Amino acid sequence: MSLNEVTKLYETLNKEFNSSNPNLQKCGELLGKLKIAMIEFQFLVPEGEAQDQKILLLTKILEIGALWSIRVKDIPSFERYIAQLKTYYHDYSNLPQSQRMYSIIGLNLLRLLAQNRLSEFHTELETIEPDQLVSNIYIKHPVEIEQCLMEGSYNRVWNARANVPANEYLFFMDILVDTIRNDIASCSEKAYSSLPLSDAATLLYFNNEKEVLEFAKEHNWNVNMTEKKIYFVSNDKKTDAIPTKDTISKILNYARELERIV
Question: Where is the PCI domain (predicted)?
Answer without folding.
Answer: 76-249
